[in-house]
Amino acid sequence: MKKFLIAGNWKMNKTTAEAVEFAQALKSKNLANAEDCAIMAPFTQLVSLKKELEGTGVKVGAQNVHFEPSGAFTGEISIPMLKEIGVDYCVIGHSERRQYFNETDETCNKKLKALLENGIKPILCVGESLEIREGNGEQTFVAAQLFADLEGIYKEEVQNIVIAYEPIWAIGTGKTATPDQAEEMCAFIRGIVGGMYEDPAVGDELIVLYGGSMKAGNAAELLAMQDINGGLIGGDSLKVDNFATIAEAANALK
């Protein structure tokens, strides 16, 4: 059976009160496979969301973390802090983190290793800009990201990593890769990872998400593609009905 993960990335949105209201409304939807859903929320909302969603199966994740366990890193959050809350996932290397906050492949690699050592599943984001896509360099670029980000990661650890393909040109722009474009890159990601570890099964077993403006209106078509296991959802994850619709589209394909 195909595995799915419908992960909402709230970015810098919602107050804690609004997050709790969302969680309460989501519970009323009685999702058939709530365990396939996760919310990546701002740090201030994580405790309240974990409490509100307890027992539902819906997972909770952070949007960033520092790779050091403690230290003089003003404004940062450590993995022990996230573990204390009980978060399930953490997003690493989102294009906005790379673009605005100088996240590099080197720091992504350090964060991946630290999260894996502490039992929190990373959601590693990779993807190309419009300029790279128009120059037909998307596969070379994404492959380079994967090689750098996964350097030193053991074969046995890869099963605990989620990879999200997020074409930068399709994030917050209203543009969306066609299902064929998204499928092609997600399949390519599987092939690259399988090749890195000289075992196609490693790539086959990956959870690969599409993260470029997946919405309630296009989710079913994207999720039906063979190599797409779900989505890292932006704007539509802020609306309970739309997020539930996407989750239901995944459930219908099981």
Estimated share of beta-strand residues: 5-15%
Largest sheet: 8 strands, parallel
Radius of gyration: 17 Å
Terminal CA distance: 7 Å
Per DSSP E runs of 2 or more residues, the count of β-strands stands at 8
Number of helices: 11
Along the chain, the helix and strand elements come as EHEHEHEHHEHHEHHEHEH
Based on Cα principal axes, name the global outline.
Answer: globular
Give a verbal description of the structure:
- This protein has 254 residues and is an alpha/beta fold.
- 41% of the residues lie in helices and 14% in strands.
- It is built from 11 helices and 8 strands.
- It has an 8-stranded parallel sheet.
- The model has no long low-confidence stretch (mean pLDDT 96).
Quick recap:
With 254 residues, the chain is an alpha/beta fold.
Key terms:
254 residues, alpha/beta, 8-stranded parallel beta sheet, 14% strand
Helix and strand layout, with pairings?
Elements: E1 5-9, H1 16-27, E2 37-41, H2 46-53, E3 59-62, H3 79-85, E4 89-92, H4 95-100, H5 105-117, E5 121-126, H6 130-134, H7 138-149, E6 162-165, H8 179-196, H9 200-204, E7 207-210, H10 219-223, E8 230-233, H11 240-252
